[in-house]
Amino acid sequence: MRLTDFFLPTIKENPKEAQIASHRFMLRAGMIRQSSAGIYSWLPLGFRVLKKIEQIIREEMDRAGCQELLMPTIQPAEIWRESGRYDVYGKEMLRLIDRHDREMLYGPTNEEMITEIVRSSIRSYKDLPKNLYHQQWKFRDEVRPRFGVMRGKEFLMKDGYSFDVNKESAINSYNKMFIAYLRTFARMDLKAIPMQADTGPIGGDLSHEFLVLAETGESEVFCHKDILNFEVPGPDTDYSTDLQPIVDKWTSLYAATDEKVDVSKHTEIGASLVSARGIEVGHIFYFGDKYSKAMGATVAGPDGNDITLEMGSYGIGVSRLVGAIIEASHDDNGIIWPDAVAPFKVGIINLRVGDKSCDIACEETYTKMRDQYVEVLYDDRNESVGVKFADMDLIGLPWQIVIGPRGLKEGKVELKNRSSGVKEELSINDALNNILG
RNA sequence: CGGAGCGUGGCGCAGUCUGGUAGCGCACUUCGCUGGGGGUGAAGGGGUCGUAGGUUCGAAUCCUAUCGCUCCGACCA
Length: 437
Fold this sequence. Notes:
By secondary structure, this protein is an alpha+beta fold. It has helices at residues 21-28, 44-63, 77-83, 85-88, 111-121, 167-187, 244-250, 263-269, 290-295, 318-328, 356-371, 385-395, 405-408, 428-436; strands at residues 32-36, 39-42, 67-68, 74-76, 94-97, 103-106, 130-139, 154-164, 192-196, 206-213, 219-224, 255-257, 273-288, 298-300, 306-308, 310-317, 330-331, 334-335, 346-350, 376-379, 399-403, 413-417, 423-426. It is 32% helix and 28% strand.
């Protein structure tokens, strides 16, 4: 993509409303624009990152045996009356009335809807277990949205739901998600720590929140420092084996959010206690028959008698992750994208647009990378170099290739790694090989 | 939902106290110089001062209402 074609409205000054790094950089880098409080448009650069995150989640969910579907944003009030949550949920639920005076709502979550789908389609224990998920926009009418996409009213969430015939099987489904979550966040270069959590309005008795440690986290968290170095299960993890030992290991040491604090543990752990702030990026629940019972979701068991389904639900804040990743990875100049979610892998800076040797070298580099399907953004604008360097650092692409007349006299370009800051003078081909290798 | 603020050109702000018909920086447009970290000179374009009503000869400025947004707290993926 040529920058003269790409829609990238960057901002030099800090918007005054943005208090934290991720919000500031997302606005400045032209990733998002606010529409109204807590509601944002995703501009091309931000949208590319969002899609990358979605895809990683998709791959890890599918690998763990889940299946993706898509449920609507607007739901009928009836199913929420059935579960009993219509009156409980309060003002955070955006309620709507259609032209036939039918009560509708913009879904804040989908337990009722998925239960409705499964109960009407699955009749036999032989069809279970199943784990279904979607990545859909949700709406919660937050009293006070803040921190940009980290706490918006409208947000993209991956929510999955497991259905099993008994508790043992349900816990196995829960464990699969536990592992899949560790893998998902690790692929985004995030250190997400599973912590005991409150189950809140969703209910249930087994639940973990996954928190990314960051100074700007919304909640105070505590954990044993050794958890930070636990090894994340690899891509070859076999989900058909017993996963309990891995889950047991990850839950063996103390880790809790402020709502589940156990002060006696703190004195016990002593110097190994880590006290930090965390951003919640995932939350998993096992809640048994809370919804299946209320909504009559049953299947026929081997003996012909009805079995009430055992359920769990599993959320990941997809849009929030964009902010969380930036909080975890930035410097004073801007964002530093991990490779896996970067909107482009490489940025080419033409230091002297109009200079024949520069233009030719840039075009050649750009074409070569495109031919190899490397995602590349070519800054071909006729701007001063300072502007180009500043914008490139701001948008945080992992690699920068800087091409100017001075280096070209020696047949060299400069390859800069955004994360390490290391710069090397190389031939165009060596630079390409470094990036591809 | 409690508390505190702010709405003036695309962005950041001054002007409001003490009424006299709008200004600064950045950005933008054109041209020139410059050319390895937000360079520079000249010439331009763009605002019924959030909205509505009121007071006044006259309102960005005073009064009333209303809408929007932000920050702190309580709440939450």
